[in-house]
Amino acid sequence: MKYRQSYWEAELYNQTYDLIVVGAGLTGQSTAHFYKKEYPNTQVLVVDRGVFPIGASTRNAGFACIGTVGEHLADLEIDSEAKLKERIKDRFEGLQLLKSTLGEKAIDYQETGGWELVLDKKIFEKLSRHIHRFNGWMEELIGEKDLYEAGSYNGIPSIYNRCEGMLHPGKMIKRLYQLNRDLGIEYRWNTQISSIEPESGILVIDELLSYEAENLVIATNAFTNQLLPDKSITPGRGYIFVTNELESLEWRGTFHYNKGYVYFRNLGEKRLLIGGGRDIDPKGEETDEFGVNGDVKGFLLYFAEEVLGLPDGWKVEQEWSGIMGFTESKSPVFEKINENCLVVAGLSGMGVALGMQLGKKAASEV
Known about the structure:
Among the domains are: 16-58 and 170-232 and 329-365, FAD/NAD(P)-binding domain, CATH 3.50.50; 235-326, D-Amino Acid Oxidase, Chain A, domain 2. Helix content is 32%, strand content 27%. The chain has helices spanning 7-13, 26-38, 69-75, 81-102, 121-129, 131-142, 169-183, 224-227, 294-307, 351-365; strands spanning 16-22, 44-47, 63-64, 114-117, 148-153, 156-161, 165-166, 186-188, 195-197, 202-206, 209-218, 234-243, 254-257, 262-267, 271-276, 316-326, 333-338, 341-345. Strand 14 and strand 15 form a beta hairpin. Helix 4 (81-102) packs across helix 10 (351-365). The two termini are 40 Å apart. The model has no long low-confidence stretch (mean pLDDT 95).
């Protein structure tokens, strides 16, 4: 027999919120944060299907980056120069907003600089020829002169970006959650939505429970198609592992390889975090299922052993996967379904840099 709501439950839960945000990742919580700050007397609710956000916001590698020369060139093959410039500017401004809102200390932010490793001499020469071009972009877009510089790291030809850094994704989301609770924002964790009615602003949880909103923001990134099947967002799984403590770790800072498909960084003084490799099996990694692709893992193990030269005795101590959402052009989906419902998704692997900025924009649009 199904339970029935009590008088108290009905009075508590059967209400219309000024704003409901679906998805408690960085974008969703940022939307709620800036809306509640602008309208402090409103009722705001954040709903998430997990006991904590499990998409990409707390499962990424903790990079605070705006893009490498190799990545910019690859992006120009699928999108216009104007759109790419817009994304780069948004990434930089998004990171500044993130740091100023949450505090650098609270999220363990470190501006270490970033290196793009290039193993092929001809490719390195090609990328180096474009450094002047992209330095001009960066001076124009973010006011940073001579951002990129050709050099080497541990004997490997590399291009340095002095403005990149790293942070702790878990502390980032925890800090934002704490700020939001202090503002009086409500949360419903472990809440699986069975359907959404964008026109009426109703979220159906089960046959006995639904939430109604004056304004609705869908910020579910890679999982958006499960709720709104017509959105062109492709899931992309990202694999990451962390090594055991190493007596001699020669890699310190943030590093990219192969157009950003491979990325690694030091984790503290003695551990290395490495992830990526989706290009090894692109179709296989177009999934919203968590798990480990053996081919991707095998490649990253080889890369760590043969390219990075990790010392004897190293091993994988912890591994996990996260699910990103990609659009064809890598520009996010920011779309109004109607006057009261907005979709923000498809951050294409740049959620740390773009999430808060997009959330603030969404809060101003609803």
